[in-house]
Amino acid sequence: EYRSGSQIREDFLRFFEGKAHRRVHSSSLVPANDPTLLFTNAGMNQFKDVFLGAEKRDYSRAASSQKCVRAGGKHNDLENVGFTRRHHTFFEMLGNFSFGDYFKKDAIAYAWELLTSAAWFAIDKEKLYVTIFEGDEKVPRDEEAYQFWLEVGVPAERIFELGAKDNFWAMGDTGPCGPCSEIYYDLGLAASESGADVPFGEDDQRYMEIWNLVFMQFERASDGTLTPLPKPSIDTGMGLERVSCVLQGVMSNYDTDLFIPLIKRAAELTLKPTSENPDMGHPVGDEKGAASLRIIADHARAATFLIADGVQPANEGRGYVLRKILRRGIRHGRLLGQEQPFMFEMVKAVRDEMKVAYPELVEHAERVSKVVLAEEEQFARVIEKAMNELDRTLDAIKQLPSVLDRWNKTPESAPDYKEAEAAFWVTFELVHRTVNKNEARPKSRHGMFPGRTAFFFFETYGLPIDFMEDAARDAGIELDRAEFEKAKIEEQERARASWKGGSQKTASPVYRELAKTEFEGYSALRVDGARV
Ligand code: ATP
Ligand code: MG
Ligand code: MG
Ligand code: MG
């Protein structure tokens, strides 16, 4: 029996209503009272104060389908999107919650009933695996969870133990925490990463995590001691896109009805009909193109929901993450050959797919679409400028050896010494704009396109690295790819460390410098037919 994503969402909520849970609407993607959080990233966020006992509700059981974004901040799945079957920047988290009401036994029994009973999701039990917390020096192995899984009928050989990274959850450095238990689905050998028939635990493409049950059981004090909570609580999260993938019998979240119409629309909007692919309704055959379409579909959802919830593209904080998402989507459109605005049309497709569950999209769609169009137009100008700068930089690198040579050979008393020196510094600035300005004359990497300079273009304008490599090669210059990767990792670490609330610290430093690094008055070579 086929179930649409919308039906699955509804079935989940109905199931838990039948177990006396209150249906609660999703909260905004912008966390209401939590400046430490970039975006809402789990169903429990809106209940944080209820779990802490700081807020009372007239119910002790709740169920929701929560809008989540995991891009930027502590949970960052942005780079995974397009390349794994199970990650999105925006997704919906189905969750059931107990505020000091039921605990482990019922949470496990409910989850198992929903997933496997014939009246509900009827998933083949043979394909499910569960994990429990293996224990550490402070908390023993979760023997209770193990017993409850056995009781509902999971055979011992399909229960695995995992460490704290996956199976111990904490709200923060202090406060509620406890072990988790996760449920995984075996997508089968065809989904495997390596093609080899490996057991559970060795292939996270094949064995897909679908549901995480958190048992809030302890209170952690600032000295690290754990005290059992008098009324333990339950927090669970299951990705709607992942459970839809399982129930619709497909191999990837992107092959569910939640994504197919969006991918189709992305294809219509970006691909030009060719003799091999005259029917624009279908994704392109090659994997690179298909990944681009998945990225566009995903990022259109994220951008639409973020803007609807009040985020505006900006150079820092939440708005900066939104801008990154939008520009990444636009760039992939360009990779497919579309240089005109198209993302603003994707917004309408997202509205049409999601308006039943999120009626607020209808009232916001016009405005959201306008914001996206403005961003697309602005980005087109940025790209134009980036291309000019890239060309000028490549040109400078080519001339660097002769400029240096001239400067080195000219006696300081010679009339053209000043001119040679000035020429050197102009070149040096262009190439080494992101390097410490006190660095001595560049000697070692003559003729190479520095990785840091490439990273500057990547961060500031979103120029893809492959594109720059090609452009450099055309100019007879090699790009220092290793240095680029290093700069990228350093920036990721900086970004991770810098989000501690507020909005000032998250912007990429080079992004904020943008206005200061503008160059004027040069004529550039335009790379014809270049795609960014
Ligand atoms: P994974 O290990 O696959 O990255 P996770 O352990 O980070 O998932 P949790 O934090 O446990 O995920 O979130 C609860 C559930 O939300 C997951 O079991 C999964 O179904 C879903 N989920 C998490 N991240 C994503 C994502 N980026 N896209 C879609 N669904 C997600
Ligand atoms: Mg994750
Ligand atoms: Mg996980
Ligand atoms: Mg998990």
From TrEMBL:
Its cofactor is Zn(2+). It comes from the Bacteria. Keywords: Aminoacyl-tRNA synthetase, ATP-binding, Coiled coil, Cytoplasm, Ligase, Metal-binding, Nucleotide-binding, Protein biosynthesis, RNA-binding, tRNA-binding, Zinc. GO terms for molecular function: alanine-tRNA ligase activity; aminoacyl-tRNA deacylase activity; ATP binding; tRNA binding; zinc ion binding. Residues 3-532 form the Alanyl-transfer RNA synthetases family profile domain. One of its GO terms (biological process) is negative regulation of DNA-templated transcription. Belongs to the class-II aminoacyl-tRNA synthetase family. This is Alanine--tRNA ligase. It comes from Granulicella tundricola (strain ATCC BAA-1859 / DSM 23138 / MP5ACTX9). The gene is alaS. The chain holds residues 2 to 533 of 941 of the full protein.
